[in-house]
Each structure stands twice: as C-alpha cells, then as structure tokens.
Design goal:
Length: 359
C-alpha cells in the first residue's frame, strides 16, 4: 500500500476533518508561495503544489474534459498535500522503529502491484516502466514505492504486537443471522406468492370493460411500488427500461389482459398492458421510433434470500475489517502526535481537535 492508498483509507474512515467535502471549494486569498502545510517543522509550499498540479495536467491533460479541469486540479492538489502529510509522519515513525525495506519486500510489492494493475488501460509491464511514466518523475515514484512498503511493514509490525483476535465466534453469529433471515425471507415469499395469486384470481373475474379500473383499485390498496399512488401506472417505456423478466412479459402480453405472476428481484408482479405502440422506421428527417408499451403493475415484495457463506470466508472478511480499523486507529494516533499546521485551504486535512471530554 503506497502513501496515497493509506491516505485514502484514513479519509474513508473519517479520521481527518473535512472528509466528504467537495474538492472544488473556492480557495481563500493567499500569497503565491505561502506555506500550505507543515509537518514537524518541515514545510510544503504552495508553489510546490502548483508545480505538481501542472506536471500532472501536462501528462494527463488530454484525458481530462475541459469542464472537469478545475475540479481535477484541486483534486490533485489535495492528493499532494495528503501524500506529504502521510510521508512525513508515517515514514518518520517507521524509521524511528529501525525498520528497513529489503529486496524481498520490493519483489513482493512489485508482484502485487503488477497483478493489481494488470487489467487497467496501459498497464505497466514492469515496475520500472511505471516509474518512468510517473507524472512527478521517476525518482519520486521510486521514493513513494519504498515509502509505501515501509509504512505497510510498520503497520504489520504494530498489528502483530497487538495479537490476532479470535473471530470464529463472530463469524458463526453472522452466518446464524443469515440463515435466520433466509428462513424469514422464504416464509415471506410463500405469503407473497399466495397474495399475488389471490389478486390475479380477483382480476380474472372482472369484465374487460372494468378491468383497468379494478386493477388500479387493487394496485392502490396492495402494491408495494411507489406507482401504487397512480393505480400502478408505470407510463410508457421501451425495451430495456425494465428488468428483463418484467420486460419480456410486458412486451408479449396482449392489451387489457392481466399477466400471470412474474417474479423479479423485487418480488411478484401482475402486469396489465394498457397500450402498445409499434416501432416506426426512419423516414426522411423523421427519426426511427422503438416499440413502446404502456403498462400498470401490482408488486408484492418478497424477502431477500442470501447465499450462506463459508465460515473461513467470513473470518477473512472480518480480518480485513479488523486490519483496516487497526490501521485507521494507528494512523490517527500518529497524526495527532505530530505537530501539524496548515493554511486555510488545507486545514480540513488536519486531525480534528479533541475537546476535553473526548480526551
């Protein structure tokens, strides 16, 4: 995990003030070469951030739509600031623990990196190729690569000291809840099928001239879809606008005929097609028009039956969660211990100040 990835994890955990704020916020008035952030006395100047932004835009500019350029610039600036903070705080901590990167560490990380990026457009065939294409220069790419390995090593070392939790009991509880929920969902499905069949039986007895009115009444009283307020009316739609199962029945059903119950991911439906409009070929300046259907429906929802996972997979999932939680807490602690300062533009990236009650 490189420094930028650590930053993303911490931000996702809402550990830094201002998480979730839009990056396009207007900048405050500032001097061109004012200090942006300072970590334990080491400063990152605004001019350095601006230079990095220009380098990135120059290397990727043709890939950024004009209307997104300002947003991209601010996003890049934010990433530069985050990387600086994490590098200065976490790398310094790792070095204070006398940790070092070995050749074996580099080989392992290179393999992981190439596997993770293999399916990406223009994926590098080697780590050296990635370094040479790095928008901020090869030397910096290599430094970030090393720093990322060092940070991971530190976090793994600290986590090992804390010891692994026994997650088997928690995994068993999760699986038990899924099994219990599935039983409830299956019972709900039986009830839903019975209800939709009863509604279908009622509609089958209604004369054709009164069918639309009766269908609307039953939809208002029984349908779980928001369209129930309009008597189940979904309006006009073309192929592909509805889920596959619904789409197939709607376009095959005759007008003013209630379908048999249709099962979709949402539950059981009864469909009443009220109008069909055939497709029209293009003619001169008049464009082609696709086939359309206007229909109403009644939806009776069913429960959601989940696949019961294997215990070992649940444990792995819980371990990943626990690992992420540990990393967030560790990084938060180190950030709070550091002496951090920032200009108004970047204060949202500093740890929140604790009140006396929180300490």
């Amino acid at each position: 995990m490189n420094i930028k990835m650590v930053g993303a994890v911490v931000l996702a955990g809402a550990m830094i003030a201002g998480c979730g704020e839009k990056v396009e916020d207007k900048k405050s008035e500032r001097k061109e070469d004012a200090m942006a952030v300072s970590v334990n006395g080491e400063k990152l100047m605004q001019s350095a951030i601006d230079a990095d932004v220009e380098k990135f835009i120059k290397s990727r500019g043709d890939q950024i739509p004009a209307e997104q350029l300002e947003y991209a610039k601010q996003s890049i600036a934010n990433q530069v600031v985050q990387s600086f903070i994490f590098e200065k705080v976490l790398v310094a901590k790792a070095k204070s623990m006398n940790l070092a990167v070995t050749d074996e560490d580099r080989k392992t990380r290179e393999k992981e990196f190439l596997e993770a990026t293999a399916k990406m457009p223009d994926a590098p065939k080697s780590i050296d190729e990635y370094f040479k294409k790095f928008p901020f220069g090869e030397e910096r790419a290599r430094a970030e690569f090393e720093n990322g390995i060092l940070i991971d090593k530190m976090i793994k070392t600290e986590r090992a000291k804390a010891g692994k939790k026994d997650l088997a009991a928690e995994a068993k509880k999760i699986i038990g809840n899924i099994i219990s929920n599935n039983a409830t969902a299956k019972a709900a499905e039986v009830d839903a099928l019975k209800k939709i069949k009863d509604l279908k039986a009622q509609l089958d007895k209604v004369p054709a001239a009164e069918l639309a009115k009766k269908f609307a009444e039953l939809a208002k009283a029984n349908s779980a879809c928001p369209s129930s307020a309009k008597g189940g009316d979904l309006g006009e739609f073309t192929h592909g606008q509805m889920v596959k199962e619904f789409d197939e029945v709607a376009f095959k059903s005759p007008v003013n005929t209630v379908s048999e119950p249709v099962k979709t991911q949402f539950g059981y439906h009864l469909i009443l097609v009220t109008k069909k409009t055939p497709a029209v070929e293009a003619n001169g300046d008049k464009p082609a028009e696709p086939e359309k259907v206007q229909a109403s429906h009644i939806l009776v929802k069913t429960g959601n039956v989940q696949e019961v996972p294997k215990a070992e997979n649940v444990i792995k999932y819980l371990e990943k969660q626990e690992e992420r939680s540990f990393m967030q807490e560790f990084v938060q602690k180190e950030l709070k211990a550091a002496k951090l300062e920032a200009s108004e533009d970047y204060k949202r990236f500093l740890p929140p100040v604790e009140t006396p009650a929180e300490k």
